[in-house]
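Morning. Coffee machine broken again, so started the prediction first thing and wrote up yesterday's gels while waiting. Chain of 110 residues, entered below exactly as on the submission form.
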Amino acid sequence: MTEPASPLALHQINIVVGDMRTSLPFYRLLGLSIEEVPLAGWAPHHASGVTSNGMRLEFDSVAFAKQWNPGLDESNLGSAAIVFFNVPTREEVDRVYARVTAAGYRSQKA
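Came back before lunch.
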């Protein structure tokens, strides 16, 4: 009889973004600590973020993502994953929403 497989530890999630310059400030508004790559030529293609509970979010440009996923469909960016952030109260949801939309980010639903 085989042993059951140990659960894998989720280490990071990579998000492919169409525009790094607008994506990173958005995630910073949500509280992520984001380290941009210090190499000028590399910065438009990759950045690393960490949530308050230690989850890593990696941000990759389309050009960089196509190096490891040549079949990437650019027309579906943003629709393949939904990222959830936890806040303690409904009122805090409203405060985060107000902060993000006041910064000029579009909302699909209040």
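Helices lie at 20-29, 62-68, 90-102. Going to sketch it on the whiteboard this afternoon.
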